Sequence to fold (226 residues):
Amino acid sequence: LWTVDIESGQEGRLTSPPAGVSDWRAAWSHDGKWIAFHRSSTGSPANLQLVPASGGEPRAVLPDETVGRIAATWSLDDQRLLSVPEGGFGGDISEVDIGTRRIRQLTVGARVSTPILSSTGRIVLSQWSHETFFFKMPVDNAAGVHEQISLSAGSNFAQRFSPDGRQIVFQSSRAGRSVLWLHDFETGTERQLTYPPTDREDRTPDWSPDGRQVVFLSNRGGPFQL
Fold:
């Protein structure tokens, strides 16, 4: 994090995270004494941090928190922070008391991204509402019936037919994060194929030529790799 003086343009470095760690989405407290931000690193959940606006060592708001929290927004009295869970498709707004570290959930199933608190105490928010299904159609009749294949709502992407044409492997975020699923044409059923660790994802699968293995991208071990 850096600060810049609006009149002089002079810049000052506020935080010096270790290698591989990023500090971002900073928010000033209303009294100007503190800056809240979230610190993230590969393989670890992002967490809310506080640093004095005059400089100093940052401290975690929830040092023992295992669920990543981002998008810090100050309450009007500077005693609490609004946040949402780390992830690509939003979550519910929680209120974190800085002094007691008590967490109070404010919404249920809202899929919120970036809540903002007004001067009257009302919260404005953007909401994720993204669903993608995949279909099949006859190649020799583009105007023919398009039949939906994927069964569940959510983002269903990167579908690939098995070599024998009996199954489709695809990525789906129906449970909140992308994991691999199989669709069976004979039974019409779908089952989850991969179970990555919490806050990790599996994406873009494809079959081996004999149909016995699937290759895919995953960040379960750090950056996305095959």
